[in-house]
Amino acid sequence: MKRFGWLLFAVLIIAGVAYGVTQLTADETEGPAEQTIVIDEVGRATLQDTVILRGQVGRDARFEIVASSPKLVTSVNVAVDELIEPGHELFKLDGRPMLAIVGDTPYWRPLDRFSSDGPDIEMLETFLDQQGYGPGTINQDFSSLTRDALEDWQEDNGYPVDGHFLPTDLAIQQWPARVGDVHVEVGDPVAASQPLLSLVENDLAVSVKVDPTDRSRLRIGLPAIITVTASDIEATGSVSELADAPVVDGQGTERYDGDIAIIGTLDLVEGAAVRVEVVLAEVVDALVVPVASVSLNGSGDEEVRILTADGTITRVAVVTGLTEGAFVEIVEGLDGSEQVVVEVRQ
Q1: Annotation: CATH topology of 61-200
Q2: Which of 19, 61, 151, 178 is the residue whose CA sits 20 to 30 A from 78?
Q3: pLDDT score at 39
Q4: How far apart are alpha carbons 236 and 232 in whole angstroms?
Q5: Which residues fall within 8 angstroms of residue 55, CB to CB, at 6 or more apart?
Q6: According to CATH, where is 2.40.50.100 located in the chain?
C-alpha cells in the first residue's frame, strides 16, 4: 500500500507538469534541479491605448432667430427637426415674409431712401444684384435705383411694395440648419429680441462628460469608436470639442464638456446612449509578450527571460512600448522568434 501511494504521487506530479507547462533544468537558480517553467511565444498584435467615455447623441445648438421689433406672427412655415435651406420662408410677421439667407452679418436697422450711408445698404444691394434685380452701383448709398430694385423684389416675393426694407425681412445665418424648437404660433404677439426659432447643427454629434484625468490625455482630432449601448451599431468619429474649464456639479465633482463628431452616417435618434472609445495611441503589428514576463533588473532596467534551444534561461534587456490588457509591446531586444519565461515555480 505504501508503494502504491508513492506511485500515485509520482503520477500526479507528472500530470501537473504536462498540463500547460514544460519541465526543464535552469542553471541560473539555486535549490532543487527540477522546476516548473511556464513559457509563452513572442507574438504580434495591434495594441491600443484608449479612454472610455459615456455619451449621448444629440445636436449642438447653433443660434436663435429673434424679432427685431414688436410684431404679430401671421404665418409659421417651419417645424421641429426640419432642415432649412437658403431661400426658405420661415415666418410672416405683420404679413411680411422672413426669408433664410446665407450671410455673416445680420441687418440691424430698417432701410429706405432716407437712410444714412452704411455697409448694411451695400449688403442689401449685393443681395438684390445676386437675385437678378439691378440696384445700380453697389455701394453704401441707398439710391433711387436701389429703391426700384427693392420694390421689384418685394413684388415678386410677397412683400408690401413700399420700398422699405426691415431687418426681419431676411434672416442672415449660415444655412442650411436644422430646427431645434419653434417658440411661437400663429397669432402670437412678439416683442423686440424675443426668440422665434432655435436652430441646431444639422449633423448629429455625441456629447460627453470627461473627468480631469482623461481630459489631460485627450486632444482635438483623436479618433473614436462609437457604440450604441442598446445595440451592436457602431460608427467612427473624432474628438471635435473639449472645454478648457470644468463644470462642477452639486457634489463638487468636476467634469469637462466635450463633443465627438460622427464620421459618416449613424442611424440613431437624439438622446440615444452610447459608449465612446477614444484611441490615444495605436501600434499595428506590434511585437508583444505577456506583461508578466517583463521585470526590472537590479539597475531598474526592463528585461525578459528567454528559453534557449538547449533548455537554459537567459536574461535579455528590452525596451517596452504600449501596453494593452495582458500584453506589452517590445520595441527593442527581441526579434520574435523567442520563447519568453512567464513564471518559474519551484
Answers
A1: OB fold (Dihydrolipoamide Acetyltransferase, E2P) (2.40.50)
A2: 151
A3: 85
A4: 13
A5: 206, 207, 208, 226, 260, 273, 274, 275, 276
A6: 61-200
Radius of gyration of the chain (CA): 36
For 57-69, write each residue's pLDDT tens digit: 988 888 899 999 9
H/E run at residue 152? helix 144-156
- pLDDT of 28 strictly over 50: no
pLDDT at 266 over 70: no
Q: Give the pLDDT band (50/70/90) at residue 344.
A: confident
- Cβ neighbours, 10 Å, residue 100: 22
**Numbered ranges of CATH 2.40.30.170 in the chain:** 50-59+203-282
User: CA-to-CA distance for 167 and 150, rounded, in angstroms?
Assistant: 14
pLDDT at 202: 82
pLDDT digits (tens, 9 = 90+) for 209-237: 999 999 999 999 999 999 988 887 888 99
Smallest CA-to-CA distance from 319 within 307, 306, 303, 305 is with: 303
User: Hunting for cell 447643427 — which residue is that?
Assistant: 201
- DSSP per-residue letters across 212-227: HHHHHH--TT-EEEEE
The DSSP bridge partners found for residue 44 are 287
Grid cell locating 329: 509591446
Record: fold of 23-49+283-345: 2.40.420
Residue 321 and residue 331 in contact, taking contact as beta carbons nearer than 8 Å: yes
Q: What are the phi and psi torsion angles at 7 (to 5°)?
A: -60, -40
Residue 330 has pLDDT above 90, yes or no: yes
Question: What residues does CATH 2.40.420.20 cover in the chain?
Answer: 23-49+283-345
Phi and psi at residue 126, to the nearest 5° = -65, -45
SS3 state at 292: helix
Place of cell 450604441: 228
Strands 22-25 and 189-190: unpaired
Task: Classify strands 177-182 and 170-173 as parallel, antiparallel or unpaired.
Answer: unpaired
Query: Residue 174 in contact with residue 102, Cβ under 8 Å?
Result: yes
Whether the pTM exceeds 0.85: the reply is no
